[in-house]
Design brief:
Length: 133
């Protein structure tokens, strides 16, 4: 039950072909859907540096992960197809990075991301389905 940055370091070192990573921390209704504790920028950076085949990333509700780190993993994941950043504290900077780096992105969940503009979202690949904007 639960893991920390150390677990992400081990994953990054052992699973270079990782394509699916779910770090969702949904605590709505008092229920924690994924027991990830002590996860922050450092753990996510380890994944970004090693796992370049990542296609699915869910970091919903991970408010402790900074926009800078989110942009770093986006730049390092050119094969990303599914990205859920629900309630992450992002701005147009992240959306512009997605537009520049994620040409294969098919799904993007922006629920609770209130600091982004329609102009930024319009820069995304038209084949990207944007949910909850």
């Amino acid at each position: 039950m639960g893991f920390s940055n150390r677990a992400l370091e081990l994953i990054a070192g052992s699973y270079l072909n990782l394509i699916y990573l779910n770090l969702c921390d949904n605590q709505s209704g008092g229920f924690r859907s994924f027991h990830a504790r002590e996860i922050d920028n450092e753990g996510l950076w380890r994944i970004a540096k090693s796992c370049h085949k990542l296609e699915y990333l869910n970091i919903a509700y991970r408010i402790e992960i900074t926009e800078h780190s989110i942009c770093g993993i986006i730049r390092s994941s050119p094969k990303l197809q599914h990205l859920d950043i629900t309630f992450c504290e992002i701005t147009d900077i992240t959306i512009k990075e997605i537009a520049r780096s994620c040409f294969n992105l098919k799904y993007l969940n922006l629920e609770g991301c209130n600091n982004i503009s329609k102009e930024a979202v319009d820069q995304l690949n038209p084949n990207t389905y944007v949910e909850n904007f």
